[in-house]
Amino acid sequence: MFDFLLYPLLAGLFIAMAAGPLGSFVVWRKMSYFGDTLAHASLLGLALGLLFQIDLNIALISCCLLIAVALVLLQRRSSVSTDTLLGILAHCSLSLGLVSVSFLDNVRVDLMAYLFGDLLSISGQDLVVIASGTAVILGLIFWLWRPLLAITVSEDMAKVDGYNVDALRLVLMLMVGLVIAIAMKFVGALIITSLMIIPAATARRFADSPERMTVFAVVIGWLAVMGGITLSWFKDTPAGPSVVVIAGALFLFSQLRQQPR
Prior knowledge:
- By secondary structure, the protein is mostly helical.
- The protein has helices at residues 2-29, 32-51, 56-77, 82-102, 111-116, 124-143, 145-153, 155-160, 165-187, 192-204, 210-235, 239-255.
- Helix 1 packs antiparallel against helix 11 and helix 10 runs parallel beside helix 12 (239-255).
């Protein structure tokens, strides 16, 4: 049993390490809809990867990053509000992905595995991709922690302090896109954003500083992963959704704690 669950467990722990700090920024900046947009776009990357016979990990990551760049460019050139742009990109990319899948006559695609995750199918190659992506994200967050925190508190003040707000915002979006791409097979496109938002929202209840919130978010993510895998193993439930259910239970439990006045 240990050998069978080792790769899924390690993959989940790596993803939680990346999702915790990023999820904190997503919660602080109210970017949850952006995460959902990239999750929808990941299906387009999957379809294009299968259609053009490209490595799926590369296709998923490339598509998510391109959608993030497209959003930044549209924000600069369009007078349409950001939430409207996100809605357009989310539904157009999802629809284009489903249309692309229809051209795959000779390819059998298990869309359920990509929509809801297939944790127990994680391979050694998948684990290497997840670990590498996590290392990149953690390295960037450690390097850009103060600038990212500055633009989160106040973009106007960050400009006064000499930070390139547009570049930092783009880097943050690209990191969110990367973590969604590498975690898609683990949790699934429809609920991947929850693995970033729920642990961070739970950690916010207990933390008294941004640094502690990111650490608590990682720990809560680890607890959700281990609890979800345990539930999946003993009750034969879907692994990805089980992780989210445990994360949701931890969030509800955190709300029972009275906040200090």
